[in-house]
Amino acid sequence: MVHNSWQKQKRSKQPVRVDRLTPEEIKEHLDKYVIGQEAVKKTLSVAAYNHYKRISQPTNVTNGVVIEKSNVLLIGETGTGKTHLANALAQLLDVPFCIVDATSLTEVGYVGEDAEHIISCLLQAANYDVKATEKGIVYIDEIDKIACKKQDVFGQSSTAHDITGKGVQRSLLKLLEGSIVNARPSSQKKSKGPVYINTENILFICGGAFDGIAPLIQNRMGTDVLQRDLLTYISPADLQAYGFIPELIGRLPIIKSLDPLNKTDMLHVLTKTENALIKQYIKLFQLSNLELTFTEEALSCMAEKAMSLKLGARGLRSICEAVMSEAMYMAPSLGIKKKKWVIDKPYVEAQLNKTWPPC
Asked: Domains in the chain, start-ordered, CATH in brackets?
């Protein structure tokens, strides 16, 4: 999957001087789009600040000291904001950005996409601007799905070749540490020849749920840490035990876990963020000359349903669509006769019950 909004942004606003932003300013932007996750937003803001400060300096300024980049690993349940954080960061910094699903990656020579396909996606997102590509951001989703079998991560033999595990990790290692990659343009793009991209200054942010890693942390610590706090204590040793090679772990030095969202967080996502879902529906109804309002009880019911289904913030869109589908069907016809439409709890329950059990 490729995010292609960068060129649109370039046409619609003045470029942001990345090297003039402070970590505080970066976090203020992330606050508009992601609720909670304060520690993660601070860490990501510092990582982005240091990364773009590093690549904006001439070599002579650092007196020959090579400042290595620090890629980021975000760990948390589905819908906690991992992808949204990376997207919001790229939007602020005005750099090319793409999202790649790690589950689609295989070793070179096997059916599927190899790791170098990631850079081809970023090049496409940059509208084939090589210099811009080399300063972009890549988000690799579901990175936990390429964990290799336990007997393989320690170098022992395996009866079956794991084409989506250790081999893919080694391919990613080259990209993360910095190498020259032949980025194959899409079939629709006419190219005079190979396009080579240096990945040294591309910031990689990886994310995954890492289901099943909590017991590994518990076993290592040997203490009675609350289950919900276990991911806070994740270490490189836990990642290796989970199935990642030490070399790849070393190229992801910044490791942060995201907190599961509670009901209050869900309500904020629905109503308070920069592009909150409820704001979108209100605007849609305004276009049909209708004033749309939601009662507090209705919003609470929607948040509770998302919590009970363990859908996270990402699942709120499905909840909203289930609630609003009938209303959106009727709104254009009623705009002339009716000026207000109130969504209350009974209405929410009735609509949700068509798809899911009662709240």
From this structure: 6-257 (3.40.50.300), 263-352 (1.10.8.60)
Which of 204, 233, 256 is CA-nearest to residue 40? 256
- Strand ranges in 136-290 using DSSP code E only, listed in sequence order: 137-141, 180-182, 196-198, 203-208, 254-257
pLDDT in tens, 160-207: 445 558 889 999 999 999 999 988 776 556 566 789 999 999 999 999
Pairing mode, if any, of strands 97-101 and 137-141?
parallel
Calpha distance 199→136 (Å, rounded)? 9
According to DSSP, the β-strands at 196-198 and 180-182 are antiparallel
Using CA atoms, how far apart are residues 87 and 138, in angstroms rounded to an integer? 9
The confidence score (pLDDT) of residue 246 equals 96
For residues 111 and 107, give the distance between their C-alpha atoms in angstroms, rounded to a whole number.
8
In the predicted structure, residue 226 carries a pLDDT above the cut 50: yes
**CA trace torsion 240, 244, 249, 254 (10° rounding):** -90
- Torsion from C-alpha of 298, 304, 310, 313, nearest 10 degrees: 50
The Cα–Cα gap between 214 and 6 comes to: 37
Q: Which amino acid is at 201?
A: N
DSSP 104-173: GB--TTSSSB-TTHHHHHHHHHTTT-HHHHTT-EEEEETGGGGPPPHHHHTT---SS--TTTHHHHHHHH
